[in-house]
Design goal:
It is built from ten helices and eight strands. β5 and β6 form a beta hairpin. It is an alpha/beta fold. It has one domain. It has an eight-stranded mixed β-sheet, sandwiched between helices.
Length: 254
């Protein structure tokens, strides 16, 4: 087991109603990086998420063929997502399920941007709406090494779904491991060639990629959950193909 984790650098993002923490260990975690997003204001993050999905600047930057392919899909999906962002709480005063899933996806992408200097790509639903549940990865980033990172996000209002057996949809680790085993990261290659730019896409062609395991945290000791998630991530065979693994825990603390 690794030594206990601790918080390193702290990044306050007032407009997001969030605080992002780098998580460190005195042990060498090799290619596994950890951070924690604490969300204190759901209305603020809902506003930021709404702004993000309505921002079509990424479409405008594409060449004509790609732009024509994405602009209608992106607008229709953005309209649907904005409706989700209007309901942050469920009837029992917990984070609403649909909103929570997007909060974990987009909040984790923002955390990687702030803590580790990643570039966030548009959420996958904007350019590839899911025809069925668990069709593929939820979000993507590009790290400073020009490597595309494939993010799987899991939300629960009662648990911390970081694990699961390979291919199982109950946890971020198992789902991501199953996706990599099924080469679902490669299936998005044509899309990512347009969105991530040439160097990251070429790295993907050469099997250089990263994986993000993102999940909600419901626990009194978030660092213990993150430590367990880190250790558990080492047990997945397909995730060993990734150059880097990022673990992002997202908690709501009002």
């Amino acid at each position: 087991m690794s030594d206990n984790l601790s918080y390193g650098q702290i990044f306050q993002e007032e407009t997001w109603g969030s605080t992002f923490y780098e998580v460190t260990s005195v042990s060498d975690t090799e290619n596994i990086f950890v951070c924690h997003a604490k969300i204190s204001d759901l209305e603020k993050i809902a506003l930021e998420l709404t702004t993000l999905v309505n921002d079509n600047s990424w479409v405008i930057k594409l060449d004509d063929r790609a732009r024509r392919a994405y602009e209608t899909t992106a607008q229709k999906t953005a309209d649907a997502l904005v409706k989700v962002f209007k309901t942050t709480l469920s009837s029992d005063n917990k984070v609403a399920s649909e909103f929570g899933e997007l909060m974990v996806s987009m909040g984790s992408s923002k955390a990687l941007e702030v803590v580790f200097g990643h570039r966030s790509l548009p959420i996958a639903e904007l350019w590839k709406p899911k025809l069925a549940q668990n069709e593929g990865f939820d979000f993507h980033t590009v790290c400073t090494e020009d490597i595309i990172n494939f993010g799987e996000a899991k939300f629960s209002s009662t648990s911390s779904p970081y694990s699961g057996i390979s291919g199982d949809s109950s946890g971020a680790g198992g789902q991501a491991d199953g996706f990599i085993g099924g080469n679902k990261h490669l299936m998005n290659g044509p899309h990512l060639g347009s969105l991530a730019e040439e160097d990251p896409a070429t790295n993907l062609d050469n099997d250089l990629f990263g994986v993000v395991l993102a999940f909600s945290i419901n626990a009194a000791n978030p660092l213990m959950v993150l430590k367990n998630a880190l250790e558990h991530s080492k047990t997945y065979e397909n995730l060993k193909k990734a150059k880097n693994i990022y673990i992002v825990g997202v908690s709501h603390e009002s």
